[in-house]
Amino acid sequence: MALTKEQLIEQGLSEEIAENILNQFNNEAKKIRESVQKREDVISKEDFIKLSNELDELKAFKDVPSIKIDGVPDVTVWSINFNKNNDTYFATQQGVYLLKSNEKVATKINGTEGDVRWITIDSNNICHFAMWQKGLFKWENNKLTK
Questions:
Q1: Greater confidence, 1 or 88?
Q2: Domain co-membership, 82 together with 141
């Protein structure tokens, strides 16, 4: 039985993210089914139907391991992004956390109190993010600006 949107939401994902995950999963399953259908002539019809049914039963994230990142609180992480230096930015319900590529513990970016839903890195390696009900912000050269 595949995961439902409701089950993903119960795990702490937003409705939008849950829908995106299920859409991506369904698109991949469809691509696999279509590629198998093109090769239907090399397997029996019964095997083809069995394989198609098994694809429908795949569980999203069945074997995906998870780890705890030291320094990032146990709250919803809305977005993760990486800059050109392989530093990792986490947009969470409690602000933005930065795990530098040469460090083992993430640190909170001062001034990012609150819910941060979206984060991106531009071509100049500058981090931009949106804090819920506070607006858009930029993190450049260890300085936060609105």
A1: 88
A2: yes
- Please check whether residues 84 and 136 belong to one and the same domain: yes
Total domain count for the chain?
Answer: 2
67 within a domain of the structure (yes/no): no
Q: Distance between CA 28 and CA 23 in Å, rounded?
A: 9
- Beta-carbon neighbour count of residue 53 at 10 Å? 9
- Is 137 among the domain residues? yes
33 is a domain residue: yes
**21-79, pLDDT tens digit by residue?**
788 878 777 777 776 666 545 666 677 677 666 666 655 455 556 667 889 988 888 88
Domain enclosing residue 85, as ranges = 77-145
Predicted TM-score (pTM) of this structure? 0.55
